[in-house]
Amino acid sequence: MSRHHKIVIIGGGSAGLTVAARLRRAGETDVAVVEPAMTHYYQPLWTLVGGGAAPVEESARPMASVMPHGVTWLTDAAAEVDPDAGEVTLAGGETVRYDHLVVCPGIQLDWGKIPGLDETLGRDGVSSNYRYELAPATWRFIRETRSGTAVFGMPSGPIKCAGAPQKIAYLAADHWRRQGVLEDIDVHLVLPTPGMFGVKVFCDALERVVDDYGITVHFTSEVTAVDAAHREATVTDVTTRETTTLPYDVMHLAPPQSAPDWIKKGPLADAENPHGYVEIDKHTMRHVRYGNVFSLGDAGSSPNSKTGAAIRKQAPVLVENLRAVMAGREPTARYEGYSSCPFTTSQSEMLLAEFDYSLTPKPSFPFIDTTRPRRDMWYLKRYGLPFLYWNLMLRGLA
Question: Based on CB atoms within 10 Å of each CB, which residue in 109, 159, 212, 237 is the most buried?
Fold first, then answer.
């Protein structure tokens, strides 16, 4: 069986739904979204769930309730793209032909790349806020910990919401301080980067945060194996490959991540990118080899931080350029790499790191100093950003 649509969007996550909504508002009537999931998640809330500051149920809504009106929803997964034939093959065997394609299936969580991790997730003190069902377990383990060693780790390579592995460490440390037990817990943060953050003003602020909590930071390092039987984590230096071990009583790990396997193996992937992302022009969001293919969000090769804030800026650029190409014109709208990382530094404060490709700060609130932890920014994270997401962004209004 086969069908045809003028515009096919692979993925019903933040990127796919935002683009679909904007295309519908622009008057495009033949838009199809390929998405097998029945539930849509606001994933940035999972950090707060893991820190005990939000209920996990608040992050989930039925996919049908957020799918833009008038869009054809194909409830299957993409399995292959043939850009020469202009076809998408679905997992169920159906072929969908397209005139123009938008690829945004999200990012793949490669749990198996850390030996021993998958088997112990959700028990024995090991968790990850990168899965809906595990975020509540993170909070349970943090709440139950009164002494011992806590390890928080981030893998090398691009990951979605790169600040998340740090955020949960700060939320946990703040909880333990409020409980009067922080001095009895040896907190370790394992980062693959040479510093806390790539932008100096935010790096300086985060250094003050870890110093205040007494967190030991292991730079240029990542957790590469978990020994649940002995409650030990293998830590590997990303430059020298030397290894050490850390004991743990509670541990939160973000998994290594990459483009979905079917993209990595296919013709849309960037052959020079080890993570297999869709090869696009970082400013126009257009594929560098296939003029009727665009991509944005976590699966694209643009070198921005993979966040919802980046998608919010990419989506209008992509839609404008896609419609220009459909009209026979060259794309002229440009995305300059804007992204933001809302760093929750305690259970009542947040600093908002906003920046672009050049790592230049790009504040959205010119009269507010968001480079330091603030209580008003906490309310933005907890209430303002979810409202923006559900009511404006997914509807193509922001």
Answer: 159
Q: CA-to-CA distance for 190 and 167, rounded, in angstroms?
A: 13
**Whole-prediction pTM value?**
0.95
Residue 203 appears among annotated catalytic residues: no
At 38, list the tokens: 């029945």
> Residue 334 in 3-state DSSP?
coil
Q: Which residues on adjacent β-strands are paired with residue 233?
A: 226, 246
Active site residue 341: yes
User: For residue 226, what are the β-bridge partners?
Assistant: 233
Catalytic one of 114, 151, 341, 350 = 341
| Chain segment 340-382, per-residue pLDDT in tens | 999 999 999 999 999 999 999 999 998 899 999 999 999 999 9
Q: Are 268 and 278 in contact (CB under 8 A)?
A: yes
Cβ-Cβ contacts under 8 Å for 230 (sequence gap 6 or more): none
Short-list 187, 190, 173, 215, CA closest to 346? 173
Q: How far apart are CA 380 and CA 310, in angstroms?
A: 17
Q: What is the pLDDT of residues 88-124, one digit of tens each?
A: 999 999 999 999 999 999 999 999 999 999 999 999 9
